[in-house]
């Protein structure tokens, strides 16, 4: 049972991730139907002994096996294009957060507030307590309010990194000299973990990301105490 759990997506925490999961299930349904039909056809061919040596071609079958895959591709392409546009859509953000990737840590800057900036390093093994997550927890978590539209500006100072939070459906490259942006909305409170998904050096797997989603009032109190 535990092994099967690793094959699934993380629990969704944003509308974007919900749409990604729906699209995955849609594609899996089509693939299962195709595999079932092809498997049934193969078993039928293996089990019958009828041979027609005068049948050289069949235009009807050729039209069918050309048309049906084209229709299936349309059913796959249309939801895929819709999802791509949703992932690139930038709504009116309430908060803008800028992150810079370094070797091997992240710097966060809350652009809407003055002097609110900090570095986020992975928590060393010796500093972990019983409630911490090994190789995933950080010394400074990124605090964000839920049910709020957030714009993320992503870049890097040295090499290419990748800012990734699987449960939010967010993955964007941090490229030196280039500013990428993504938009997302967290729909529930909690802790959401991610890691750099780009091979950015020897300690590539040791620059985790932790987002702590809290209420708007708690977020404003945190901002007031941090400035």
Descriptive notes:
The strands form three sheets. A five-stranded mixed sheet has the order 3-2-1-5-8, with no helix packed on it. Strands 4-10-9 form a three-stranded mixed sheet. A hairpin with a 6-residue loop joins β2 (105-110) and β3 (117-120). α2 runs antiparallel to α3 (59-88). It is built from four helices and ten strands, in the order αααββββββββββα. The protein has 227 residues and is an alpha+beta fold. It has two domains: 15-88, no CATH class; 95-226, Immunoglobulin-like. The longest helix is centred in the N-terminal third of the chain and has 33 residues, at 15-47. GO terms for molecular function: copper ion binding; cytochrome-c oxidase activity.
């Amino acid at each position: 049972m535990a092994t099967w759990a690793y094959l699934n997506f993380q629990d969704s925490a944003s509308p974007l991730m919900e749409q990604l999961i729906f699209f995955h299930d849609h594609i899996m349904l089509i693939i299962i139907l195709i595999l079932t039909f092809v498997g049934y056809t193969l078993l039928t061919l293996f089990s019958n002994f009828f041979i027609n040596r005068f049948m050289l071609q069949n235009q009807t079958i050729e039209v069918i096996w050309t048309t049906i895959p084209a229709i299936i591709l349309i059913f796959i392409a249309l939801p895929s294009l819709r999802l791509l546009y949703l992932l690139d859509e930038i709504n009116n953000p309430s908060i803008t957060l800028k992150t810079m990737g370094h070797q091997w840590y992240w710097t966060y800057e809350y652009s809407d507030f003055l002097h609110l900036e900090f570095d986020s390093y992975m928590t060393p093994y010796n500093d972990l307590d019983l409630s911490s997550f090994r190789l995933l927890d950080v010394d400074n978590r990124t605090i964000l309010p839920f049910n709020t539209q957030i714009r993320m500006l992503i870049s890097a100072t040295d090499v290419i990194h990748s800012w990734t939070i699987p449960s939010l459906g967010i993955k964007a490259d941090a490229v030196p000299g280039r500013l990428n942006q993504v938009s997302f909305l967290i729909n529930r409170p909690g802790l959401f973990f991610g890691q750099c998904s780009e091979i950015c050096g020897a300690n590539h797997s040791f620059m985790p990301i932790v987002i702590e989603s809290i209420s708007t009032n708690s977020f404003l109190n945190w901002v007031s105490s941090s400035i």
